[in-house]
Amino acid sequence: MKIVTSWMIDGQVSTILRQLKRKFGQLSPEIEAQIQNLSSPQLEDLGEALLDFQQIDDLTSWLSNLEE
Amino acid sequence: MIDHDRLFKELLSNFFLEFLELFFSEVTSYLDPNCITFLNLEVFTDVTSGERYETDILAQVKFRGQDSYFLIHVEHQSSSESNFNRRMFRYFARLHEKYVLPIYPVVIFSYDRPKKAAVSSYQIKFPDFQVLDFNYRTIQLNRLNWRDFINQSNPVASALMARMKIDSKDRPKVKAECLRLLVTLKLNPAKTQLISGFIDSYLKLTAVEIQAFETELGIFGQPQQEEVMKIVTSWTINGQVSLILRILKRKFGQLSPEIETQIQNLSSPQLEDLGEALLDFQQIDDLTSWLSNLEQ
Fold first, then answer.
1. Shortest CB distance from A48 goes to which of B194, B232, B246?
2. Interface pTM (ipTM) of the complex?
3. Nearest to B204 among A6, A14, A43 (CB)
4. The pTM is what?
5. Are A3 and B272 within 8 A, CB to CB?
6. Domain locations in chain A?
7. Residues of chain B found within 8 Å of residue A40, distances taken between Cβ atoms
8. What is the tens place of the pLDDT at every residue in A35-51?
């Protein structure tokens, strides 16, 4: 069975944050906090989606779409 | 969402003897440890409620030195349910009817509340006489103290401590102690992963608690601290690999098994570097040359 641990999510969060900072420079604390609260499948979706992000707004709208 | 039932089934079926040794060591004195067969799950329909139930774990076991068998039936309950004792009796009656073997019934209760002792019997009586007095073994985790298990050299103890009675201030300490016990057992990687995954599923720490957890690890001394960190890091890598592979497949379609293996063997910092580097990759060759540059 596949177990998702908090340690797996830690690794995914830190990888994604580094990718996003490389793309857009510093992120706001709010955005960082939102990303830290994502589940593992959401983080993997975000990893795919961020390939197409052109600007920081793409990220914020991707995140706000999740909440609906 | 944690799939409690699957986690418990996985734990108990992989470590069945250890489970018995921990809680019912007398049983292990009269069973033949080389003759344990797990039977297919039995599905029952409760005609009154219309619900379907299946048994969690059912093992056929041979009495030591005899040519006769019995069943051990272990049920896991993650919430408190009224009339559960009646359901246990139904399981018992159905199993007894089908297999015509003695049955040793066990329930493991993993809920947080209520704390009061769970019912462990089912009776049918009349004013003038008692027809039935059916009893089953219970393990109610929220009434067990994790400190009593800390020195048990048993993987099931290491896992279940995470779900016992724990003061909230002790959560980081208990997680550290569960993992310390785990590393002393020197299990193979797959078993270590199952137990550590179980521990983490029930003791997810907040940022503040993680600091306290790290302080606890520091008290262990270097070799044990390093062994625990190895487990944590292997999970971190696991998460990073699955993320990076997904991104790379989206970029380049399927990857060759060689490339996948190379990525699975990277360290955690290398995987973070790769995450950043892949943003600039135009073609698969960029990936292979990035990987081959590492090896030099």
1. B246
2. 0.96
3. A6
4. 0.92
5. no
6. 6-67
7. 239, 242
8. 999 999 999 999 999 99
